[in-house]
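Hi U.,

Before I forget, here's the chain from the pilot set. I'm dumping it here mostly so it's searchable later in email.
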Amino acid sequence: MSAGAGRGVLLGVDGGGTKTDVVVADLTGRTRCTVRVGCTNHESVGLVAAMSELERGVRDALDGAGAAAGDVVVAAYGLAGLDWHSDELAIGGSLDMFGLGGDRILVNDSMIALRAGSSRGWGIVSSVGTGAVTAGVAPDGRVARTMSVGWGEPCGAYSLVADALHAIAAAHHRSGEPTALTELLLEALGAADVVTLFEELSRGRRRVDGRHAPLVQRAVDAGDSVAADLLDRSAVQHAAMVVGIADQLALRDVEFELVTAGGVHTAGGRFGEAFVAHVLERCSGAIVAPLTAPPVTGAIGLALDLASDADRDVRRSRRA
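Structure:
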């Protein structure tokens, strides 16, 4: 079916570890139906469960739009956990079973955030939430992305909380400075004291995660220098990822949009200030563009791009 078919629709997916947004739009990009389902990150729940949940979302969205599987002209999937070529093969094989018509785009979810936040369709995105990933697209279409595996790169809120725990333990051992993080985290977790906290952590009876990252900024607001150093170090590490991607794509000396996404970026504060300062020292042409649109709009944007390209190809072949 060509992009000019009257009944054609576009499908866009933002698949995450907590929620997944599925949008069906007409061929102008106007939304006809939006559905939200649960986790579709195969790293969290396994491939079978993730694809089952995704298929449910796709079917519900198509039903809500009054469209059939064969009406899909382009389906664009931006999925968390899509990190390697082997992931593309496994997930792509599952998507084949959905029976959708048309073309398909399958990318890491960072790429739809970039498309949603960049007015030019290219640039760099720094996504710092519970985890983190940095990705970029050059004007000529070349793509680069961090591995998002936690080795040689920071891991967003998760890294902040881990650093806070290191600081609390160091203060307890008298090998580090006292920090307000100790009382803040003990209070938040309802732990009696530092020894009890780390006993429960080491024995698997208690968990901490990225949800506790805002405590670091609270400690900074209370004048804690240890927490301030943690935020500065995290910001510089994430900024270094942007510089690395810019280097790979030859954007260091070029004006480009830097889309910032994820809860840590949204919170701003000291992290945001240090992040921007470090990036601009090394990439003076970076224009920081906080993501304000839902990332799934980027998936629809990618679908529109491909549908428009296909439509131009059809018109060219007819003229020939």
